[in-house]
Amino acid sequence: MGQNDLPNFAAWSNKNLADFAVEAYIRMQEQQDAIEELRNDLKFAMSELRKGAILEHKDGYKMVVKNV
User: Fold this and answer.
1) What is the DSSP code (8-state) at residue 3?
2) Distance between CA atoms of residues 39 and 30, nearest Å
3) Residue 9 and residue 1: Cα distance in Å, rounded?
4) How far apart are CA 1 and CA 7, in angstroms?
5) For the chain, which residues make up each domain, given as ranges?
6) For residues 19 and 29, is the Cβ–Cβ distance under 8 A?
7) How do residues 14-46 score in pLDDT, each as one tens digit?
8) Longest Cα pair distance anywhere in the chain, in angstroms?
9) Within 10 Å of residue 42's Cβ, how many Cβ atoms?
10) How many C-beta atoms lie closer than 10 Å to residue 65's C-beta?
11) Do 12 and 18 touch, CB atoms closer than 8 A?
12) Are 22 and 14 in contact (CB under 8 A)?
């Protein structure tokens, strides 16, 4: 998004700005939660890979890794 694509926030009413800020905050919190979950999943997967474990995904596929 370029600078010319930015909304004209100065023209927004206080209520619209407040509503937008609340929605943006909630969305950022949800994204942060998702990022944290992905980080934890990655840490777990890397730990299991290092052990040479069989990983099973909730969608049904498996990955077998043996230590070299």
Assistant:
1) G
2) 14
3) 15
4) 11
5) 3-64
6) no
7) 999 999 999 999 999 999 999 999 999 999 888
8) 62
9) 10
10) 14
11) no
12) no
Any idea how long the chain is?
A: 68
Give 43-64 pLDDT, tens digit per residue. 988 887 777 656 566 666 666 6
Which residues neighbour 45 within 8 Å (Cβ) at sequence distance 6 or greater?
Answer: 55
Q: How far apart are CA 32 and CA 26, in angstroms?
A: 10
Reading the block at residue 58, the tokens are 């909730």
The 3-state DSSP class for residue 63 equals strand
Q: Which amino acid is at 10?
A: A
Sign of CA dihedral 30, 31, 32, 37: positive
Judge whether 45 and 55 are in contact, CB under 8 Å.
yes
Q: Which two tokens stand for residue 41?
A: 């999943």
Token pair of 65 as six digits: 């890794």
